[in-house]
């Protein structure tokens, strides 16, 4: 994929988050990284999705150094950069305030693996970050948001559970490509909606068995995957 | 109905599950059987619904033996085959992860007959299968999913309650034709949504009376049916 | 309004119930009465809404005697007839299985006047009928459904609260015209949705004060109404 | 902005409340004030949104004195006037019966700041007014509705939390322009929906920290704002 194609894909990912109902107003942003050159492409800040074009995308390096951009980057840029530095496996990040994922983030409640819909994409529960301290909020808030996400993944492969809930804020999802990151954000929202309603039926509902979790996840992921066409 | 017509109907049924909001991403699959020749027609695995054509449908015999297909069948094929072998009355099967039916499947909670909407199509509660054992999940998972469905119908006519909830997974529905199977999957979702909300108003809500159940079901089904035009 | 215009309006009312999301599949039916001639116009049974035309409407007299019709009437005709005989003020009836109104009907829970949205159209709580007896269900089920509605309105003006919930079944709404009956069915659904969620926040929520109820209802209805243009 | 432009913007704001799903039937109204001349522009009463044009807008002065209008003003005009007199900072008011905001108004439950979606637009909880007395309802109901809103803002800047819930009725939102007032009404509805579901997960859920509240609100508002383009 050329750099121009990747920029087109980032613009499309931003628009798709709106099209799938994950983003209202200007809440939310998608980015991708070109790992060869270390350049990050991200949505501009506060530009309406209806008029956004690939030309509006903002380019930065991994330390936040900006290239020659017409527009300011998304105010969440530093969170994306922390994730790209900490998770070398990922190629794209999507942040939304999608309704049910945000509800769990607000209630600081992780989303257990209640069914195979969840296990088809996420190999285990969706975690919630710890709250940020007052100091973190004051000093380097956006980067600190990335840091608490990375903390929550200690000892865990970020591609096995490609999403997190930031406490009191909302979800971040990622993947190898912008398309995959949007898919994960979309599935996360549906999984959150079903988990919420399942918990209302039974407040002590246990997750599905580890073997069912593994069976579904491995059907779609890794060397033994059998799902789809060659 | 010719075999070509049935293949068109299976393709349409797959697309209709998306159109009715029952299927997101590539979750879900519809199939039908030509009882004269024993040939089963099913969705291919992981092909986006937007580009699917009748030519993409996959054909198998009742033991899973494949005909000369361009594409791999849905990974759930073996579940469909078990149902066609066990339930000779049925002609089509639809599997979805529709939101509210899946919520009940996840909570392992059957759906009682709370109203006439339910009784118009399902003659009694929608059951939940037992959980699969670790051994079943490991060895012949997809066929075992069919087996626990058949178990749940011991002594019960599969056309009287043409749907089931697979524990921790989601619903399967069926009918004599693909169109009927899609209708049952659609009504099931609406019935599940209304049952969920009714239970929140009253956690001990009893089902409607047996005579009201019978009255509504018999109005639309069997030799005494009076509903619709001739 | 000519009889032909009224027939067009009945057809449109049936289609509007689908357009407003109140009716799925073929659940639901709308009718009107021409009070001068005593002729009732109603939807045919089981005809898909997408292909329905004014020519498909069925005409009956107030005792159910049929005129020269091409199609069978809605299987709920007798309920409509009972309402037209008992409530001479009303000119049209709409029956739906709209989601939240049906949820209250299933839970046999009346909808209290929790807000002014309710009071703008319904002057007091939406009642639930008693359950039908086994005998009523067996012998004259459809007419008996009308009878329990009439029972629930003893001493109450059917135009002051132009809707009812039939226990275990769903809502009926009415008005002076087909358009008004559809409007009442639409507002009822929204009011039911808001009442359900309000009750979840507070299970002992009291209704608004009688004076607020009266103020809003009288603003839109009766000789002192000030709402709208002349 | 010329007076004609402002009138166009008020008409558009009324139509946008429908387009965003905040208003059903004819519930709801938007207005704006031209502070230089003291003229208020508001929706006419009971005119369907589908046929409304800028020419239909009604003009009044701050005491309710009418200019030469073709149509009657919204029956809520006096509430808008009270707000314009008490809050000189605001330029537009939007009243809706949007589903979740109305649910909180009906349950007389304020909406705490559970997340950053809330804090991005509202600097603290959304309050509920006190109930109106029977006397207020009888004598000057519409103006009294404005008075209890103003009461609820004693000592609070109306632009810091540009919305209120009127007990047993529904939300009012405002802003410097019609576009901003509609945006606030839209965000309020989404925030209310997420708060409702968060409270169901945890009935004792605390709000986010004051520092997180301040950080998000100040990012978008005031002299230190960094969000968006110049």
UniProtKB/TrEMBL annotation, chains A, B, C, D:
<protein>
    <recommendedName>
        <fullName>L-ribulose-5-phosphate 4-epimerase</fullName>
        <ecNumber>5.1.3.4</ecNumber>
    </recommendedName>
</protein>
<dbReference type="InterPro" id="IPR036409">
    <property type="entry name" value="Aldolase_II/adducin_N_sf"/>
</dbReference>
<comment type="similarity">
    <text>Belongs to the aldolase class II family. AraD/FucA subfamily.</text>
</comment>
<dbReference type="InterPro" id="IPR050197">
    <property type="entry name" value="Aldolase_class_II_sugar_metab"/>
</dbReference>
<dbReference type="Pfam" id="PF00596">
    <property type="entry name" value="Aldolase_II"/>
</dbReference>
<dbReference type="InterPro" id="IPR001303">
    <property type="entry name" value="Aldolase_II/adducin_N"/>
</dbReference>
<feature type="domain" description="Class II aldolase/adducin N-terminal">
    <location>
        <begin position="8"/>
        <end position="196"/>
    </location>
</feature>
<keyword id="KW-0862">Zinc</keyword>
<keyword id="KW-0479">Metal-binding</keyword>
């Amino acid at each position: 994929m050329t750099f121009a194609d990747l920029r087109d894909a980032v613009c499309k990912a931003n628009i798709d988050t709106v099209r799938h109902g994950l983003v209202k107003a200007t809440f939310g942003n998608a980015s991708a990284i070109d790992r060869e050159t270390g350049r990050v492409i991200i949505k501009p800040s506060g530009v309406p999705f209806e008029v956004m074009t690939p030309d509006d995308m903002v380019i930065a390096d991994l330390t936040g150094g900006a290239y020659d951009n017409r527009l300011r980057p998304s105010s969440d840029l530093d969170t994306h950069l922390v994730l790209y530095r900490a998770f070398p496996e990922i190629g794209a990040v999507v942040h939304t305030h999608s309704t049910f994922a945000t509800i769990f983030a607000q209630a600081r409640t992780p989303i257990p693996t209640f069914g195979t819909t969840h296990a088809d994409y996420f190999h285990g529960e969706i975690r919630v970050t710890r709250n940020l301290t007052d100091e973190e909020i004051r000093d380097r808030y956006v980067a600190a948001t990335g840091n608490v996400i990375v903390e929550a993944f200690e000892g865990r492969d970020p591609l096995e559970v490609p999403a997190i809930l930031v406490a009191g804020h909302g979800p971040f999802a990622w993947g190898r490509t912008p398309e995959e990151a949007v898919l994960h954000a979309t599935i996360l929202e549906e999984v959150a909606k079903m988990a919420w309603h399942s918990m209302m039926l039974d407040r002590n509902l246990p997750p599905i068995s580890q073997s069912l979790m593994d069976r579904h996840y491995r059907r779609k992921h890794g060397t033994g995957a059998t799902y789809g066409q060659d």
